[in-house]
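Researcher: Re-running this chain for the archive, since the previous output was lost when a drive failed. Same request as before.
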Amino acid sequence: MAIFGKLAYDAGVSPGALLLVRFSLAAVLLGMVLLVRPGLRHAGARTVGAAGRAPMRRGRVLAVAVGLGAVGYATQASLFFSALQRMDASLLALILYTYPVMVTVVAVALGRDRLSPARGAALVAASAGTLLVLLGAGGVSFHPVGALLAFASAVTYTVYILVADTVVHRLAPAVLSVLVLTGAAGTLGVRALLTGGVDLGFGPSGWFWLACIAVVSTVVAMLTFFAGLKRTGPSTAAILSTFEPVVTAALATLVLGESLTPVQLLGGVLVLSSVAVLQLRRTRRQGPAPERDRPVVTAGVGS
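Model: Regenerated structure tokens:
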């Protein structure tokens, strides 16, 4: 998505137009998928609370799902693409991917998980890796405000994940995704109206990259992730998702000509390794995909 975003900016697309078109088009497309395949409306949904959670009224579940998009996803995406205007896609991806570590820390603070010595060491290594990424900026297009926006995006996504964890098993994944996308599109549509609208006068290349973001990076990403989740379980899915910034960095080098310094590469390795260790230790301790262990959210709706 970061690569498509850079290419869309080069084609004259503004961040406001990118966000509004992305979420609106993705919501419509995924809604059409639900119409064509009605079985997806109930696949994976549960009517009772999981892992000891109290049951939640249907209306409240729907409100939380829409709110996740209207507040959480819209804010996170706005921060992400604002940061993308100011910094390289590869560096942005590495900063954003501090969120799995933050999720672990907050989950421990809330009593949803425990912090073992090995997990604490992994968190220290991840923090050191993030610091290396920032300090080793060197010749890449590092921008302090961009880095702050990227980190704020990660923090927002952390909150989004922890809230989503309360409803992710109460709705079918496709339904939850449509509600989140619709909520985000609604917020961005209202913002566009209040600020005088967005410029949609860019050329065909801009629309092409927007279509790529909506189809490849949103709809296809969500549907294929959930299909893979069904076959691999949440822990494996979460571990695989930590390779996203690696793919972004590689594509940024090939497509955009960006490069990371050796210090930043070392920091990125520390961050990704720490996240993988956290997930692997959880898998070994708890066994195969227990219901209360749901790292899926870290790579699902908000990807």
